[in-house]
Amino acid sequence: MKEDISPAIQISDLSIVLNGVHILRNITVSINHNEITAIIGPNGAGKTTLLLAMMQMIPYSGKITFPHKNKPGRNKPRIGYVPQRLEVDRGTPVTVLDFLSLSEQRLPLWLGHRKRIKDKIFNNLERVKASHLLKHPLGKLSGGELQRVLLAMAIRDEPDIVLLDEPVSGVDVAGEELFSELLTELQKEEGFTLVLISHDLSVVTKHADHVICLNKTLRCEGRTVEVLTPENLAGIYGIDKGLYRHHTESD
User: What pTM does this model have?
Assistant: First the structure.
């Protein structure tokens, strides 16, 4: 249990209707500061929609507030975001350095990269153990490598909150575990609030402090060990859903 369990995000009576369809109804939940919170639920449950609402990217009724004191000099929390996927032209000559420089420098990239910006990008990649990818073509990266680059982009401005939408989607089991370990280590070191959507309940069980169970409404929430019971999982997913344990050579 972490010492500071004050709310970083407070969601009160939130409902979302898009194109006449009720996506989420009457969601009230707190997400604690300096913890890892996982949002789980079946496809179409409204998980991504909830993240978009936290970023104020879609209209909603109800209230979303950020009660926790932000880092000095900030009136509101700085939020980093890693999408579920990024469509990349596999033949693009754009490098990781080029991609991460897009929002950093004003001069055209063909004029070169300023040393200050290049050093900052290198340091951010180093934080996610991906500095070796600096000059690699973006289109040649594996799924796991691309997710590390996107994570480096999300944390570049020292965010208070990091939101991840299925960060290991399409990554193999070994890469998924490495990325999850990296996320946990980074969150502990830097103390940001981490919210991630995940379908892998073994990852959630191992790494999340808190779980929010969605299926159009809030079905259950609380400490991970208390929430991920067979009864709750059956209520969210159906009777055949269970925890999957990754096998190792010693199994």
Answer: 0.86
